[in-house]
Amino acid sequence: MGKFVQLVVDGLSTGSVYAALALAIVLVHQATGLINFAQGGMAVLSAYAVWWLTNRGLPLVAAILVAIVLSVVFGALVERWLMRRFERGDPDTAVVVTIGLLTLITGFAGWLWTYNNQQFPSLFPLDTVSFLGVSVSVRSLGTTAVIVVAMLLLQGLFVGTKLGLALRAVAINPQSAAFCGLPVGRLLMVGWGLAAALGAVAAVLVAPQLTLTPGMLDNALVYALAAVILGGLTSPIGVVIAAWIIGILENLAAVYVPFIGFDLKVAVPFILIFVVLIVRPQGLFGRKTVVRV
């Protein structure tokens, strides 16, 4: 029983890493209607900014705040000078552009800082706490707490604020939103900027656990996309719960399902995706979209 509980706790910790990136993907989609595959690369760039600033003597918290501000500016500029040229065209084209942007950012980071692993300072202590035979690191607890707060803030933004409602209106129908007097261009920039800031927070939480490299979030991005599909693109709470489910199930399957083991546990989220898409295509917590034809 103790082993089972330990696997569940470890799965929650791993799922929190996936959830951090999944929330940023949901934020971009809720604000623009697009899936941003470059989210991981933008987050890694923010992590490198924090690493560079701390190596030059800036305190970690101050470096994180500076990186968040820079991320907001970078996200807004990406939307204004790159994505806006494709947003009114075929959505598939815009998605391909984000994949190209991911490749560009990863290559730029590798060229500038090399592909060597870099030690990233942890925002939380490295101590562990034990309860009923289960050991949990303080860093994992802190990461989970930050993700829960971000999830609640994001849910509150889109449900209970005028800015969130305006962002959703622009994402659903930018033409109608413009006719209603909403500043569509500025709102799109705000959406991308907020998502980039959330991605920066995710990278800062993840980097100490994975070590900092240009491709640090490549695997996490796959799991994050799985969490987005399972939880639903319209539900920040849903994607966090889905990320936790993925983290827990892949840990349990690796130990208790012999033919899966640790080598094939990466298949667990994809199996879940197939099942959910067949039974509930909008995701476990997503809303059905009604389209008038």
Automatic annotation (TrEMBL):
Belongs to the binding-protein-dependent transport system permease family. LivHM subfamily. It holds the Pfam family BPD_transp_2. The keyword Transport applies. It is found in: Cell membrane. The keyword Cell membrane applies. One of its GO terms (cellular component) is plasma membrane. It comes from the Bacteria. This is Branched-chain amino acid transport system permease protein. It is a multi-pass membrane protein. PANTHER family: ABC TRANSPORTER PERMEASE PROTEIN, BRANCHED-CHAIN AMINO ACID TRANSPORT SYSTEM PERMEASE PROTEIN LIVH. GO terms for molecular function: transmembrane transporter activity. InterPro entries: ABC_transp_permease, BCAA_transport_permease. Its main location: membrane. Keywords: Amino-acid transport, Cell membrane, Membrane, Transmembrane, Transmembrane helix, Transport. The chain crosses the membrane at residues 6-27, 60-82, 94-113, 133-153, 190-208, 220-249, 255-279. GO terms for biological process: amino acid transport.
